[in-house]
Amino acid sequence: MGKENFVEQIADIEKDFPQWYTDVVVKTGLVDYGPVKGTMVIRPYGYAIWENIQSELDKRFKATGHKNAYFPLLIPMSYFTKEAEHVEGFAPEVAVVTHAGGEELAEPLAIRPTSETIFGSMYSKWIQSYRDLPVLINQWANVMRWEKTTRPFLRTSEFLWQEGHTAHSSEEEAMEETMKMLGVYKEFAENCLAIPVITGRKTEKEKFAGAVATFGMEAMMKDGKSLQAGTTHYLGQNFAKAFEVKYLDKDGVQKYVYTSSWGVSTRLIGALIMAHGDSRGLVIPPVVAPVQAVIIPIAAKKAGVLEKCEEVRALLEKAGVRVECDTTDASPGWKFNEWEMKGVPLRIELGPRDIEAGKALIFRRDTLEKTEYSLSDIAETVKSLLGAVQKDMLEAARVRRDSRIVYADSLKELLGGVEGGNFVKAGWCGCRECEDKIKAETAATARVFAEGEHSEKCAVCGKQAKHTVIFARAY
User: Fold this and answer.
1) Nearest-angstrom CA–CA distance, 27 and 159
2) What span, in angstroms and rounded, lies between the C-alpha atoms of 294 and 316?
3) What CA–CA distance (Å, rounded) separates 2 from 20?
4) How distant, in Å, are the alpha carbons of 165, 169, 263, 447, 472 from that of 216?
5) Model confidence over 108-156: pLDDT tens digits?
6) Which of 74, 214, 285, 292 lies at a C-alpha separation of 20 to 30 Å from 194?
7) Cα 22 from Cα 154, distance rounded (Å)
8) Alpha carbon distances (Å) from 217 to 89, 231, 470
9) What's the count of helices (H) and strands (E) in the chain, helices before strands?
């Protein structure tokens, strides 16, 4: 990247949010476009964010009793036909292998768009008795969905994710699992990504193909649109019956298991970018930042400067901070712009005067504030500041989101609300026609039910409302 003005390389976030997003993901080195349309190459800086996301989630999955496994990428097409809703829902997106080894295959193979079917087939072999339950398995994998319109991280033909698939002896236990994992996702989103989310049940129209009930985690982006950041599904016995997943219960009777599935993907990186980014580029919360602090030497050629920078770097690294010292020959101003665009939470400036005074200037990427701190306890200071950045980013995002949640009593008000970049709470009678009309006339969809809220009338037809729903335009 040349030594030009970095901000001028990024589209105006206020005027062209989609272009701003594309510019940021490419120019900060998160991704590049793959040779096949709709694919992306996740570059080291982007992949480091995913590794940190993976690490944080994996700890949480294991703490709730789940174990990791790996299932094949290729799934017999006949598996998809066993669950009617599932095959209908995924058919348009499935990529199929018909030839291999120079010959046509006896049966076409799907490149997994999701793995409920292959998990079901294996669970039918592994589960025989009530003693085998529950089965709590997660896999980290790639999936393929042949998308027509793509954008890096948000919607690509191939992406990385985790998918949990569990089997239980009762409906209550499977539903408890579904809700527990929704809670795990919410806690992770808020405490690691600093993104406040709204969780709740999806409408029948918006639920996962083959599920009895789907629950979503919705995050507000800076343009007021929603991003579905994760989902959990209560599958009932739909896949158990399709794949004959039965067990002998204590009473000597053969019974079908109840299952759940749940997943989040590299889409979370897109959420992070659009929830926190600004006109200067990325703003990454410390928990998942590849580099939490960067040290910039000022007047680096002067005696003692680089040595002191290295001393501070070693101290921070020993304290568990992910830190880099930029000793390239670019100017300090160029480095400031580059690391700001890359979203590094803290920048530490160290020059001869600072060293002589026993001080360092520390710049916070989230607030753009620069403050002088003593070098004597720099490690404790940086750790404390990283905690403050994490907490303050969540609070700022929460305040921003809450100020943009509005109510609507009519279709006109609902349209005005979403056009103003808001989440809109509105009454809904429960009929599909009204839900479809809202999408047709406002380009907004039902995100999740607003639990505990009771609207008087449907915003579309005026009849008695059965639910209050959060509507928004979405990615």
Assistant:
1) 20
2) 10
3) 19
4) 16, 24, 10, 8, 13
5) 999 999 999 999 999 999 999 999 999 999 999 999 999 889 999 999 9
6) 214
7) 11
8) 20, 6, 12
9) 14, 23
